[in-house]
Structure formats: structure tokens, C-alpha cells
Amino acid sequence: MTADLVYLVAGGCLLLAVVLPELLSRWAVSAPMVLVGVGMLVGPSPLPDDLPIDPQTNRAAIEHVTELVVLVALMGVGLALDRPLSPTRPASWRRWGPTWGLLLVCMPITIAAVALLGWLAGLAPAAAVLLGACLAPTDPVLASDVQVAGPQTGDLEVDESDELRFALTSEAGLNDGLAFPFVHLAILLAVEGAASQWALTWVSYYLVGMVAIGVVTGIVVGRALALLAFRSPTRSLRVAERGDSLLALAALISSYGVAEVLGGYGFLAVFACAMTFRSAERSHDYHAAMHQVTERLERLLTLFVLLVLGIALTRGLLDALDWRGVAIGLALILLIRPVAVMVGLVSFGSTHGDGNGLSRPQQWATAFFGVRGVGSLYYLAHAAGEAPTLGQDWLWSTVSFTIVASVLVHGVLSTPIMARLDPDRAHSGAHEGC
Q1: Are 384 and 390 in contact (CB under 8 A)?
Q2: Contacts with 388 (C-beta within 8 Å, 6 or more apart), sequence order
Q3: Domain span at residue 411?
Q4: Is 58 helix (H, G, I), strand (E, B) or coil?
Q5: Span between the terminal Cα atoms of the chain, in Å
Q6: Residue 427: pLDDT band by 50, 70, 90 thresholds?
């Protein structure tokens, strides 16, 4: 019975992944909102009691499924970004100014603020830090209306005026991996005790070393695969000429696997690999083909997870939720994120006027749009596996509530806000949907 139900749910998700984006393109309703709602409607029905949705008994399955969703999303985001980032060209780093503000200032402030609220709500320090680390990263897939559409090919002329979409997309691509050191910080607090015994190790290895290993691994793997795909002396190995877009999945798995074996952060490796591969033969149509594969798979997996999340919401996932969890989730969405973003953008001079900054309306939109999603569930499941005391029902309920609240609030407002900020693109999209 359960196996048949899995096929039914998977088939329904595939159908919805195909038809929903076009059906909802002109409405202030997102596909994630619909899937969570459908799941909540299905949840009270007479489903089998042994559905694998309880986070306490199915933690490992949740970890692996959400991990795969994030990895596919990161590969797609890395391929979608047209703006180059060269380690040896300072000018390219300046064009990413808003991104650095969001990562280096906004993210730590968000982690600290959420952790403080968690501690004031009665959580142990380890659990409070974990809550901040889980809820700080933005999701690279749930807000497609506010992200770049995909790689440009042909006569490449990168649109660097769309700072809002670029800032949100690049932030989502990098902050999933950069949250990992703080997840490890929570695990060390829970397992090792006094910070004086491991603080130096955390800074040198978990915060610096593993980040560096992940980024370098991704760059090396990306360059190697680009040489193979575009410039191999053996014609049969130049897969770009054949248009075999499944290389995107091979790149994803290989970069992640190598980074994890070497002790680095695999999430960062996947994003760096995609960015590096994208930098080779930038105008080649092959990038669009690879992005299309990851986009389709990402959409299917994400909608499946959100449907299951919706079912779980009505079958006990929110039983431990109380006013403290609701307050923290809403405070993150409505207060902490906006304030932290504005501080980060001001700190890095990401203002309009230098050709690479955000206008004031774009700054406020960037501050508002910070969708929480599948990555938050992954980090919580991963930490609970390393330190079982961190797998509290209250944390699962609070994180799940925050994700659903974010999907609802941002899903409703993304279409009208982006239409106001970018009326030409919104009009074009509506016309194409007719």
C-alpha cells in the first residue's frame, strides 16, 4: 500500500511540476504555496499510519532527501548566474558587493539574533545556535519570481542592471554552504561542552579550513570538467558538442563527493563547480541545456518535499509549536531579516550610484525577500544525527512553521512587488503566459 502511494504522490508531483508554473504565472500564488496547501488537505485523509514523515523516526531519510534537493538547486543556481567572479580580478569582486554584504554581515547578524531569541525563549545554548544556523540561510529555489531566470547564451550581454535578482540568487547559492560552520558550532556545544577546549579548532578548521577546501575543490573539478566538455582533444569526450546535459548531474555528484572525502563543505563545492564551469565558453548553448536539467529535477524534488511537509503539518509536526516558536519565526521574517540586510548593504556600500549598487526600492525588496526552505530542514536533520539532543520536537515544529510562513508571505507578495519594481519583465511574462 505504501509503495503504491509513493508512486501516486511522485506522479502527482511530476504533473504539478509541469503545469503549475505556467498556470500560476499571473497570480499572486506560488507553486510551493499550492503544494503545501494540497499536502495539508491530504493529511487528514485516511492515509497509512506508517508514512515516513515523523522526523524522530525518519531523521536519516529526511536528511538525505533534503540534502539532494539542496545540491540540485545549488548546481542550477551556479549555472544560472551570468556575472563572472574571477579570483584574480578585483573588479569582478566589486560587482558582487551586495552579495558580500548579505553573506558577511547579514547572515551572522541573523544567526546571532535568532540564537538570542531562542536562548531567551529557554533553549540551551547549543539548540539556540542551531536554530539560528538553520533559519539563517535563504532558499535557492522557493522564490523563482525574485531570482535570475537562467544563463544567457549566444551573443552574451550580461544584464548587470538587475541587481535585485542577482543579489538574492547569489546569496542563496552561497549561504547554504556558509551556514555549515555554525551548525558544527551547535554540535560542538552539545557534544564537547566548554568552548575553551575546541574554539580554536572550530575557527581554524570548521570556519576557515572546510570552507577553503570546499571552494577550491569545486573550482578544480569545474575547470577539469569544462576542459573535458569543451576542449578535449578526443572528440567523443567533448560532450558539449553532443549537448549531453546529464553532465550537470555528474558534475554535481563528483564535486560534492570529492569535497566531502577531502573534508570540505560539499555544498560550497557544488556551487563553485557550477560557477567555474559556467565561466568556460560563457556564450555556449550547452550551459542553458545543463541548467534546464537541474531546474526540472530541482522543481520535482522541491514540490515533492513541500507536499510531504504539508501532510506532516496536519499529522503531528506542529504539535510542539507554541507562542515562542511563532514569535521567533515571524520576527525573523518581518524584523530580523530586513534589519540585518539593510545593515549588510550599508556596510558594503551597496547603494545606487556606482553602477553596481541597489536602488532604495531594490534594497527594501532584498531586505524583505529571504525565503526559508528545504535547507533549514536538512541542517536540523543533520545536526540531530550528530547530536541527538538537538533533535527536539520544538525545533522541528518551529523550523517547519517558519518555512511555511515564509512560503506563504513571500509567495503572496513576490509577484506584485517584482511587477512594481520591474514592470517591463512582468508585462513580458504575462504576455508570454497568454
Answers
A1: yes
A2: none
A3: 2-433
A4: coil
A5: 41
A6: very low
Determine the 3-state secondary structure of 351 from DSSP: strand
Residue 117, domain CATH: 1.20.1530.20
The sign of the dihedral angle between the CA atoms of 120, 121, 123, 127 is negative
Three-state DSSP state, 379: helix
More confident residue, 114 or 367: 114
**Nearest 5 degrees, angle CA 290-CA 259-CA 179?**
90
310-336 core/surface letters (b: 16 or more CB in 10 A; e: else): bbbbebbbbeebeebbeebbbebbeeb
- Between 16 and 276, whose confidence is greater? 276
Task: Read off the C-alpha cell for 378.
Answer: 536538512
For residue range 24-69, list pLDDT tens digits in order: 666 666 778 878 888 888 777 766 666 778 898 899 999 999 999 9
Q: Do 181 and 129 contact (CB within 8 A), yes or no?
A: no
What predicted TM-score, i.e. pTM, was given to this entire model? 0.89
- CA distances to 136, 337, 352 from 114, rounded to whole Å, are 8, 10, 30
Question: Quick one: cell of 361?
Answer: 526600492
8 Å CB contact between 318 and 264: no
Reply yes or no on whether the pLDDT at 434 is more than 70: no
Total domains in the chain come to 1
Q: Could you identify the residue written with the cell 542577482?
A: 166
Phi, psi at 358, each rounded to 5°: -100, 140
